[in-house]
Each structure stands twice: as C-alpha cells, then as structure tokens.
Amino acid sequence: MTPIKSPVNTEERAMSPIEDESGTIKSHAKEGMGGLAKGLAIIEAFGPNTTRMTVSDAANLADLSRPAARRCLLTLVEHGYLAHDGKFFTPLPRMLRLGSAYLSTSSLPQIAQPLLASTRDKLQESVSLAVLDEGYAVFIARAEAVRIVSTGVKLGGRLPAYCSATGRVLLAGLPEEQVRAHLESVPMKRLTDRTVANLDGVLKAIRRAAEDGYAISDEEIEIGMSAMAVPVKNSAGQIEAAVSVSVYSGRVNIETLRETFLPALRETAARLQRSL
C-alpha cells in the first residue's frame, strides 16, 4: 500500500491573518491541526489488505514516528474507533460513522441505490457505483446479489485504479498527462498472472476504455473474478462516477458480459445521468 503522507509544518492551532492599516490581509498562516491529520492518515491506511496493524505498521504506512503513531492509535482506541489486543489494532464498527457522513449527505449514492438494485435484479449479479479518490476506485453505493459467496468489494471498499475496470473507466475521464503522472507515482504490481501492471499497458487499457465507453478487468484483481464498468457523466459531460458489475468467470464469460451485461449497465448509467 502506498504510504499516506502526513502534512508537515502544520500549525497545531489556528493563526489569525495579519492586516495592514487599511485592513488588507498581507499574509495568512496555514491553519490546521497536525494531530488530526496524523490520525486521519492512520485511519486511511486501513483497507482490504490491512485489516489490522501494529504501531510499527501504522508508523510506516502513515509516514509517522513510532511515538506519534502510538499516540494516535491509543486515542482512536479511547474513542471507540479501534480495538487493541496488546499488539494489533483493528477497526471497530464506530469507524463506519466516518464514511456514513459522506454517504448520508451526498445525493449521488441515494439517487443511485434504487437503480443499482433494479439492475442487480435484472442481471442477478452485484452492481456497484464508485468514484475516483487518489488513485483508487472507492465504492459509494452497492446492490449485493444474494449468494452463498459474495463477489467484489463491499460498500466503502476501494480497488487500485490502474488494474480495475472501474478505475480505468474513471481514469479515462482525465487528461492523459494527469493519468500518466498518476501512474508514474504509484507502485503498480501484478496481483495475478493476468494483471496489466506496466505503464504502456495500463495507458493502452485506459485509452481503450475511453474509446469503447466501458472497461473489462478479466481476472486481473483476483483469479476467477471478472468485472465490467461503464462511466456516469454529469451535465458537463465529465465522468463523475462508474457503474460496475463483478462476476465469477466460471458463471459469466466475457462474451456474456459484452452482449448481455453491457446494455444493462449503460441503461443504468444513462438513467443515473438524467437524475444528476
């Protein structure tokens, strides 16, 4: 996981602006709370591949000193966000409140949910909505198909943009210079033997997603699982989100994704676009 940098030279207290005799602001000290920023960096370090961490893990992932990481972790324990067994720190349900603040105030997940549920019922597969956040596709709404074993990530989960169908669709909405700069800044690694994890290959996949209007990830995230995503554009024609479906390769092949699932996803995206 890419280390999340904690801001430096951040004031622990708010500073007042400096004004000259006419009342014009001449300079303004940067406002912020360094301790809060460090705590948030640790919270963001938790994910599907980091479900628990030691003090050393937290210090490394959030780019903090061990004493600072320990103070942040213990504060989160004290306030009910983490549990501590003497060595490992793990998230508690209270952590969900942080994500629910966005989900409960943003209209996009609320508008999308019934549309996703309708598409799920039509396809009998889990359907999701995601947005781009710092190189990850973050899932903000999801209609889960009822199966013994579920597929894909959960609500609030995230996948690397470079190798996921959802991420490639979202990156396709950015200028290529920005996409290239992002890809050059993240460590791309092969999650399976089918993962495209080199700059030229990923750029090619993103360009194809832009041209085709959809992307497919065929067992690049996990062997036996494939996904398809289509863009959701706002009134200005910019890609704001992506609708996706994840399936087991043995149950749904790539041809079926294109012939049956793609029209359904495009219809859902179009209905969502009309609601934005």
Descriptive tags:
276 residues, alpha+beta, Arc Repressor Mutant, subunit A, Beta-Lactamase, 2 domains, six-stranded antiparallel β-sheet, two-stranded antiparallel sheet, disordered N terminus, DNA-binding transcription factor activity, Helix-turn-helix domain-containing protein, DNA binding
Structural features, described:
It is a single chain. The chain is α+β, with helices and mostly antiparallel strands. The chain has helices at 34-45, 55-61, 66-78, 96-105, 107-123, 165-171, 176-185, 199-212, 254-275, and strands at 18-19, 25-27, 82-84, 89-91, 127-133, 136-143, 158-160, 215-218, 225-233, 239-248. The chain folds into 2 domains: 18-92, Arc Repressor Mutant, subunit A; 106-275, GAF domain (Beta-Lactamase, 2-Layer Sandwich), CATH 3.30.450. It has a 6-stranded antiparallel β-sheet with strand order 7-6-5-10-9-8, sandwiched between helices. A two-stranded antiparallel ribbon has the order 1-2. A two-stranded antiparallel ribbon has the order 3-4. Helix 5 (107-123) runs antiparallel to helix 9 (254-275). The protein is globular and about 55 Å long. Residues 1-29 have low confidence and may be disordered.
Give me the side-by-side strand order of the main sheet: 7-6-5-10-9-8
Report the strand count: 10
The CATH H-level homologous superfamily of the largest domain: GAF domain
Looking at the overall shape, the CATH architecture of the largest domain is: 2-Layer Sandwich
- Helix content class: 40-55%
The description of the largest β-sheet is:
6 strands, antiparallel
What is the highest CATH level, the class of the largest domain?
Alpha Beta
Order of helices and strands: EEHHHEEHHEEEHHHEEEH
- The DSSP helix count reads 9
Shape: globular
